TrEMBL record:
It comes from Streptomyces naganishii JCM 4654. InterPro entries: AA_adenyl_dom (IPR010071), AMP-bd_C (IPR025110), AMP-bd_C_sf (IPR045851), AMP-binding_CS (IPR020845), AMP-dep_synth/lig_dom (IPR000873), ANL_N_sf (IPR042099). SUPFAM superfamilies: Acetyl-CoA synthetase-like. This is Amino acid adenylation protein. Residues 11-362 form the AMP-dependent synthetase/ligase domain.
Length: 511
């Protein structure tokens, strides 16, 4: 039996079945499914009024870790629009660029003044405005019904050209995803799921709708609580945890990952970056009653496209050459192929995927160039891909021991604390600064062993402090280099290209 055909309907089904069960806990507030549904519908009715009586197509959601953020997400979907998450902590110039690229009709803001200067009408929905919606009857509205090919959400990821890339996900994509994963984790009333990811990160969609699809409670930690995972799991009585693996290192440094220290956990899921087997063992010992799973997938493939579930007995865990957990196998509804350097199928190479989770192409068609292959595994053009075309992930993967193992990237894209970053976007931002001739950004191990960004530039009349300040006006915090070094000349290799290894050595010598 097939499930709901729109993203909002996954929540609405649980709201109808479990109206008195707690759906959301955030910022000291608690709402049942019935209360959250009614609030979302009152807010959705306001969105329709703000749109002049017609349904807005795309609504920016400028709110984080608040009732507004989660009720607002549902309200946008209920109004038949696509959600475009915007981070209140990102630079105003970046948010404005995304608002323009997304073609927003409206912005839903969670604080006073949010969204001003974006050139888009703003509907304020802070605590006062939400309280003013009242507890009376929900407005009698003829709700728009999005079709499977209508957009559910639009997330912007880092772009190599210096401009974020819009990734539109249709209702058919996200519903197909939930069909694969919503039933994997035994979620029902009484289950308490973490919400660790920001709404601008597509892992948040998993958090919200895997919880709500099963009638579980979405529990939203404060941002600072994420740096103390063990304490947070216990304080919030979490049964399900989903985060980037780097949060394990925070718990490890605090000395809190002691055996049996997280007795409430029943499921622990990690994604967004490789999970080392050593970190997995440490977490598993602390959550001895928890099943452990790894999810892998780019935003373009609707959150995740492969999964690996660890055997219950750590003695049966695999060994991999790079010490990271396998990413498992593709979901049954997907086709997966590995292509070697000649473009032929092999046991090791670039991972390419097609199927119902694959998005329909970037918001800017020019970004499609080089990212798709035809049914015959030949390069496709830059226009919208056809249904059977393959998406090139840019990830190097090999089959080892019957599982897919992630070996790295084929380009200069990196993952820092789960955030996908194109180094070229930071380099482009640096090159735009006065006095900078050229720039390069590399990753180096930080003190805790996790990767961090460092930059080197060549030029005259430019200083590291000024460059850092300028970047802060354009880039979000997670894309900021830890250090910027100004050199007279960037080292070149014999081909006249910037020598990344020499840059790494140079940066190491000036520490």
């Amino acid at each position: 039996m097939s499930g709901p055909t729109s993203l909002y309907d996954w929540f609405a089904r649980s709201a109808a079945e479990h109206p008195g069960v707690t759906a959301l806990e955030v910022g000291g507030e608690s709402l049942t499914y019935g209360e959250l549904r009614d609030l979302a519908e009152r807010l959705a009715a306001r969105l329709l009024v703000a749109g002049g009586g017609s349904a807005p197509r795309r609504v920016g959601l400028l709110a984080a870790r608040s009732v507004t953020a989660y009720a607002g997400y549902l309200a946008v979907l209920r109004a038949g629009a696509a959600v475009v998450p915007l981070n209140p902590e990102h630079p105003a110039s970046r948010t404005a660029g995304i608002a323009e690229a997304a073609g927003l009709d409206l912005v839903l803001g969670g604080t006073a003044g949010a969204g001003e200067g974006l050139g888009v009408p703003v509907l304020a929905a802070g605590p006062g405005e939400l309280a003013a919606l009242g507890d009376g009857p929900v407005p009698d509205v003829s709700w728009p019904r999005p079709g499977p090919d209508d957009l559910a959400y639009l997330i912007f990821t880092s772009g190599s050209t210096g401009v974020p890339k819009g990734v539109p996900i249709r209702h058919r994509n996200i519903c197909a995803y939930l069909e694969q994963v919503a039933g994997r984790y035994g979620i029902g009333p009484g289950a308490r799921l973490s919400q660790t990811f920001e709404l601008t990160f597509d892992g948040s969609v998993h958090d919200l709708f895997v919880a709500w699809a099963g009638g579980g409670t979405l529990v939203v930690p404060e941002r600072g609580q994420l740096l103390s995972p063990v304490r947070t799991v216990n304080k919030l009585r979490l049964t399900h945890w989903f985060s980037v693996p780097s949060l394990i290192s925070f718990a490890s440094r605090l000395g809190t990952l002691t055996p049996g220290s997280m007795p409430t956990l029943r499921w622990s899921v990690f994604g967004g970056e490789p999970l080392t087997l050593d970190a997995a063992r440490e977490w598993r010992a602390a959550a001895a009653d928890s099943r452990l799973e790894v999810l892998y997938g780019p935003t373009e493939l609707t959150i995740s496209c492969t999964a690996y579930r660890f055997p219950d007995d750590p003695a049966d865990w695999p060994r991999t050459p790079n010490g990271t957990a396998p990413i498992g196998a593709g979901y049954p509804v997907l086709d997966v192929v590995l292509l070697d350097d000649t473009g032929r199928p092999a046991d090791s190479g670039e991972l390419c995927v097609r199927g119902p989770l694959r998005f329909a192409g970037y918001a800017n068609a020019a970004d499609n160039a080089g990212r798709f292959l035809t049914d015959e595994l030949l390069p496709a053009g830059e226009g919208p891909p056809a249904e059977g075309h393959w998406y090139r992930t840019g990830d190097r993967v090999a089959v080892q021991g019957g599982h897919l193992v992630h070996l790295g990237r084929t380009d200069h894209q990196v993952k820092i604390r789960g955030h996908r970053i194109e180094l070229g976007e930071i380099e482009a931002a640096l090159r735009r600064q006065p006095g900078v001739r050229d720039a390069i950004v590399v990753t180096v191990p930080a003190a805790d062993g996790e990767p961090e960004l460092q930059a080197a530039v060549s030029g005259s009349g430019c200083g590291a402090d000024g460059l850092y300040a300028a970047l802060g006006e354009r880039l979000p915090p997670y894309m900021m280099p830890r250090r910027i070094t100004v050199l007279e000349q960037l080292p070149l290799n014999t081909n006249g290209k910037i020598d990344r290894r020499a840059v790494l050595a140079e940066l190491g010598s000036v520490r």
